[in-house]
Amino acid sequence: MADRSFAEQLSRESETWVAQGIVSAEQAAAIRSQYASTRDARRGSATTALAVIGAIAVGFGVIGLIAANWEEMSHAARLVLLTLAVAGSYAAGFHLRDRTGSWPRLGEALYLLGVLLFGASLFLVGQMYNVQAHDPLALLLWAGGATATALVVRSRVIAATAVLIFTSWVGFEFGLALDDAGGDTFAAFPVVAVFYGGALYGLATAAQERIREHWFASSGFPESGRGVGLPIAAAGLFVFTFAEAADELGQASDGLDGGTLAGFVLLAAFALAGAGALALSRRPSGRYESAALFAVLATMLVAMLAGGNGDVYAVLFNILFAAVALGVIYAGYLSDEAWLVNLGVAFVAIDLVARYFDVFWSALPRSVGMIGAGLLVLGIAYVLERQRKRLLGRMAGT
Predict the structure, then answer these.
(1) Measured between alpha carbons, how far is 257 from 169 in angstroms, rounded to an integer?
(2) What average pLDDT does the chain have?
(3) DSSP string, 30-44
(4) pLDDT per residue as tens digits for the range 309-322
(5) What is the per-residue burial (b if ≥16 Cβ within 10 Å, else e) of 231-252?
């Protein structure tokens, strides 16, 4: 309603501007078209989100229906049903989005449904034939199929799905390897998150800056890599802002065999390569982002290999996390990326709330602590939202 009333008011005002000679009729039409396209884009995003949610719900429903009647079907019937489900989703998506163009967002959702059903089919067929393969292999095959689909149909949603599936494969692989090696999973997993997330964000950001005119830049993979990598790296770093976790960081490499240790080294190398790529990029904040990533990686590697006092490392990681949170806001401001500003504000809020609980929670009665926490959250929300709006307003004005 607010958008509609604004559009109506703008239409009346623009006619007045034309009558008064303030703008020409062509300029008034351009102004109305600009605001109409912005409003349509917002509505299109909402429609896409609803279609994706619907596709996921349908996917789970179809998988549940097949699983419920799985034992009663012959092997041939199972294969035919799974193949028809996947092929039918892709065919319907192609018809609605690419062939007729009548329902592009619904067609996009059906492509996504096909990717989800393809992944479910891999697991169901493996179970049906009792395939004794490496457990995470199905996730890697699923990620490969999703990647191929995203590149063929040029879908940002499926590109993000492929990145998430690949991330799940990396986590699954390291989880099994750490369990087999008897390593300290609690400390090692956040390290994997920092290395992997840092590599993903650094390399994807550098790629996005260098191949702006290449077709791959519009595939959705660079944006997805950045959007997935940064929160994962920040989450891993956040864990070590607590002294108990930082104290165990020196044990993260204990008991690792050759393959698992090689995996850690490879991830660290990719993360360092990401930091180097950021430094060499033409991005306004590239050098600052590179320095922050390198500082986090260097501190973590020293803590893992040399060990030391967990309290000291917790202080260092607190400083680094605060620097990263504020740096993300600054990078978003310099690069005119609102999502980075919003994400940085979220990091700052999470850090402030965590430090309150870390410092004061055990020293105060529970009820008083809860009241204080609530007031703190409300205050942080008010201050950060006001600053966020001011910053976004400045970005829009520049």
Answers:
(1) 20
(2) 80
(3) HHHHHHHHHHHHHHH
(4) 778 888 899 999 99
(5) bbbbebbbbbbebebbbbbbeb
